[in-house]
Amino acid sequence: MSSTSTSTASGHANVTATVAHLREILALPPQTGVPPTVVGKHPKPRKPKPGNLITPSSLRPHILACDKVRLWSVPHSTTFHLSLLKQLPFEDVVKLLDVMLMSVEIKMCENYGSGLLRFHQYCDSRNVSEKLCMPVPDHLLASFIASWAGRVIGTTVQNWLAGIHFWHNLHGAPWHGNSLMRSATTGLTKLIVSLQCRPPVTLECMHVLLSHLDLSNMFNASVFAIASTAFWSCCQLGELIVDSVTAFNLMTLFTTLSRHFSCSASLHCSSSSTGVSFIVITIPWTKTTHSDGANIVASHIDDHSNPVSALNHHLLANSSVLANAPFFAFKTESGGCSPMTRTWFMNRCNQVWKDNRLAELSSHCFRIGGATELLLRGTPPDVVAMQGRWKSCAFLEYWCKIDSILPMFISSSFSDMHLAMMQSSMDSFSHCYK
After folding, report:
1. CB contact at 8 A, 259 and 284
2. CA distance 210 to 352
3. Closest of 180, 235, 28, 57 to residue 129, by C-alpha
4. What is the DSSP letter of 290?
5. Which pairs with CB-CB distance under 8 Å and at least 24 residues apart come from 153-156?
């Protein structure tokens, strides 16, 4: 073999090894900013359900949904990575891909991964080669969407497409989704899909919690304060509590990107000109404002479940919790403290409701339940929208959901006049913002 041939072979080997090393780095959590997964033990992917199988491929390993965007690839990926490595230092390429991945939230990564799975299952069922999966042609995207007509709602498909689009961006592939894809998406959204309405948290649910939680227990005091705040302040539950015990600790290592507020968070306690007491909690991050944060307003409500009393009781019961602990952390029996996680919170609430023959609910049900209760009490829609920090159009979408769950709220305490007044106020709100 000539020296030139030997040099060429050696160069190819070096390039192949570099690309392989890049893939190994990408298999790890991003090295820039907050890791995308902040659980103590990395969960294992579940065994695929019947109908969710996919043709085995080294380019599509069996991994968690949230990791598919990062780790699934196609032949185009190798070409893109090679072109990057020829023009940029290895460290710069890793940082570029890390920063791009940081633009997507953990939960959204899971949704994107589900979309990628569905798309590749469709391609496998039609014997579409992996080369055609990226860049994917317009007609293939449109056909994929049409295959789900009448089975899913428009927002589901739009999330799937957003995931496939981001996957293309991450791998430097052009996006060919155009008129065919848009027409198929529009057509799908017009097809009626019968979906079971998610039951909301009602005032009855709140009263059952209050009656059956021993509030002398510091864990229960935290649970009820979270429930009351989420319900009456129309909060996203993720704004109040963490997903795992280690999440808060890991995020505080990156102070500029911290998303959860601690016991030392800024609290403003005051009363309005009419004598209504309220507490304003400043949070550092929300799903819509990101690092700009927002204020959660908990106002006194003429009800036993009022959030001002619940918050004050929690702060008193858990006063010995460290200042840098999460705001809704509670004191443990061992004398330490622990963050309240979403799983612990929902399990406690659902256990109480189940024991009292009420339906088990999800974490999303507090916000819509609180908004509906406020509207039924005669609170102007624009005030409710401000309380839940909805934009006008988003709140109108919520109203469509609220309209379908009203029978769950109707009782002798709400007369036909109440309902007529609420409908009239929402009609006026709709005319102003449509």
Report:
1. yes
2. 10
3. 57
4. B
5. 153/189, 153/193, 153/195, 154/185, 154/188, 154/189
**Whole-angstrom distance, CA of residue 348 vs CA of residue 325:** 21
User: What are the CA-CA distances from residue 314 to residues 6, 215, 267, 276, 284 (Å)?
Assistant: 72, 9, 14, 20, 21
Q: How far, in Å, CA of 72 to CA of 95, rounded?
A: 19
Residue 110: partners with Cβ closer than 8 Å, 6 or more residues away? 64, 65, 66
Q: The tokens 């894809």 sit on which residue?
A: 181
**Alpha carbon distance 136, 77 (integer Å):** 13
Cα 275 from Cα 300, distance rounded (Å) = 10
Q: How many Cβ atoms sit within 10 Å of the Cβ of residue 96?
A: 14
The runs of H, that is alpha helices, within 153-292 are: 154-170, 179-189, 203-212, 218-232, 245-251
Chain-centre distance for alpha carbon 360: 20
- Return the ∠ at Cα 414 (arms to 411 and 419), rounded to 5°: 115
What's the CA gap between 94 and 114, in Å, rounded?
25
Taking Cα atoms as reference points, which of 96, 101, 171, 104 lies closest to residue 133? 171
Per-residue pLDDT of the chain (434 residues; tens, 9 = 90+): 444 444 444 444 566 677 677 777 766 655 444 333 333 445 677 777 776 678 889 899 988 888 899 899 999 999 999 999 999 999 999 899 988 988 887 778 888 999 999 999 999 999 999 999 999 999 999 999 999 998 888 889 999 999 999 999 999 999 999 999 999 999 998 886 655 566 789 999 999 999 999 999 999 999 999 999 999 999 999 889 987 775 555 444 333 345 678 888 878 999 999 999 999 999 988 877 877 889 999 999 999 999 999 999 999 999 999 888 889 999 998 888 899 999 899 999 999 999 999 999 988 899 989 988 898 888 888 888 899 998 766 676 666 666 655 666 655 455 566 666 666 776 676 667 65
Counting Cβ atoms within 10 Å, is residue 193 exposed (0-12), middle (13-18) or buried (19+)? Answer: middle
424 sits in the region (left: phi over 0; alpha: psi -120 to 50; else beta) called alpha
Q: Which residues contact 285 (CB under 8 A, 6 or more apart)?
A: 239, 258, 259, 260, 291, 293
